[in-house]
Amino acid sequence: MIGREREKEILARCLAADRPQFVAVLGRRRVGKTFLIKEFFRSKFAFYTTGLSSQKMQGQLRAFHESLMLSGDPNTAVPKDWFEAFSRLRQCLLRENVYREPTSGKKVVFLDELPWMDTPKSDFKSALDYFWNSWGSSQEDLLLIVCGSATSWMINHLLNDHGGFYNRITRQIHLMPFSLLECEELLRHNGILLPRDQLIEYYMIFGGIPYYLNLMDERFSLIQNVDELCMKPYGDLYHEYDNLIRSLFKKPEKHLLILEALSASKSGLTRKALTEIPAVGGGSVLTKNLLELEQSGFIRKYTRYPGKNETMYQLMDPFTLFALRFLQKREVSSWMQYYRSPSYYAWRGNAFEMVCLHHIRQLKYALGISGVETREYGWQSALPGLQAQVDLLIDRKDGVIHLCEMKCTDEPYVLSKEDYDQLQRRLSVFIQEVQPKKAVHLTLISANGIQPGKYNHVAQNLLTGDDLFSI
Q1: Would you give the distance in Å from CA 336 to the centre of its chain?
Q2: Residue 302 belongs to what domain range?
């Protein structure tokens, strides 16, 4: 198993605990939640079942029934409701020959894709609540693991529940996409050896999603892989974007519109700007949709420096940006037709900045400030007639602000006189407008390295793509 050291440690501690454990595993679809649990426990459970996409209660109960029979339940009739289903699960777990995890003796129950089981008017949550609170919570040898790709459902109905599940989750695992270093390790494991500038481009397209990376064919180039997976009607990811959104949200039309609007704005949009798009609307529906997209990892919410109340919403998922820019309209059938075109370069600059935002921890390590508390912002000049803007500010508690300039070029970046003057102006406008009481360091981050030059001294810190691969 590549990476996931913290998550494996949490699971090991749950096995070693002398009290019942209720573990919630969250994370967007395709990030590897099911793989993590199955791999850690070698696919051996006292009971395992999974929810079914787009099935009503009776279909969900039939799937649960099949799993009950595989676990030794002698009853051949499909449960009439969820209360009966969990009652029969309890009887299965009380059997003398129930499977126990060898090292701990615990009975591990894994309920995968839990949100899909909670169909309308099914009383699923009430039945699970009763199963845990009336029995499971007193079983010292029980480890219950629930998992779901609909992150907003998991948060709102389990972690933030004020009813029967309040304070019942003993541990939570929020599985995040792989870092660049983990992607490099996974691709190497699959026999794909790439220079790091190409690895960064893979990340700009597919993000750190293990499922996507495992689809790469080691015989093909990056362009060929994109064509085969995304551009051809038979490709595994040809319909992935729509399928992904529609599998996570019951009414995804507004979510799709919000993502499309945000994809057109590199630094994001305010809520007010979103409400001005007639099809998006506003009110409590917009609040709910933005929260769900944020919880599911598609967007981030941030404020502009210095401490303004203006909240920005910014697209953060690389594959979503790629799909909206190049896959939705299906104007061409090959990535080669886009490659190194003006639209390609416009996308690449935005996508690389997104990669940097996903690797703040690695940037801090490269800057030697891993132990320093920081906050990250964006900034845009409010002075009339000025276009000064910084997409990443790292504000350090020890009295320094990093103004980050991110560049993605075909060759090692050469800092020209024009670039030098532009950076100086941006720095001057920032200091004039913000009047920070901290030192301001220009920090240049170049995906493909930085060529030595006479103007490089404008930046106190010069970082390269390799710095994004730190631990």
Answers
A1: 28
A2: 241-327
Q: pLDDT by residue (tens digit) across 333-389?
A: 899 999 999 999 999 999 999 999 999 999 999 999 999 999 999 998 887 766 788
- The mean predicted confidence, pLDDT, of the chain is 94
5-16 helix and 33-40 helix, angle to the nearest 10 degrees? 50
Inside any domain, residue 361: no
335: Cβ–Cβ under 8 A, 6 or more apart, which residues?
223, 226, 227, 230, 231, 326
Residues 156 and 9 in one domain: yes
Q: What's the token pair of residue 68? A: 């009950």
The whole model's pTM is what?
0.91
AA identity, residue 336: M
SS3 234: coil
In order, the DSSP letters of 383-405 are STT---EEEEEEEETTSEEEEEE
For residues 348 and 408, give the distance between their C-alpha atoms in angstroms, rounded to a whole number: 7
- Residue 283 located in a structural domain: yes
List pLDDT tens digits, range 221-269. Answer: 999 999 999 999 999 999 999 999 988 888 899 999 999 999 999 889 9
Is the confidence at residue 147, as pLDDT, over 70? yes
Q: Which helix (H) or strand (E) holds 210?
A: helix 210-214
d(CA 429, CA 387) in angstroms, rounded, equals 10
Total structural domains in the chain? 4
Alpha carbon 177 to chain centroid distance? 5
Cβ–Cβ contacts within 10 Å for residue 49, how many? Answer: 24
Is the same domain home to 205 and 56?
Answer: no
Which residue in this structure is represented by tokens 């320094």? 400
Among candidate residues 109, 103, 99, the one with its CA nearest the CA of residue 64: 109
Instruction: List, in sequence order, every residue forming a beta bridge with 330; answer none if it has no partner.
Output: none
Query: Does residue 279 lie in a domain region?
Result: yes
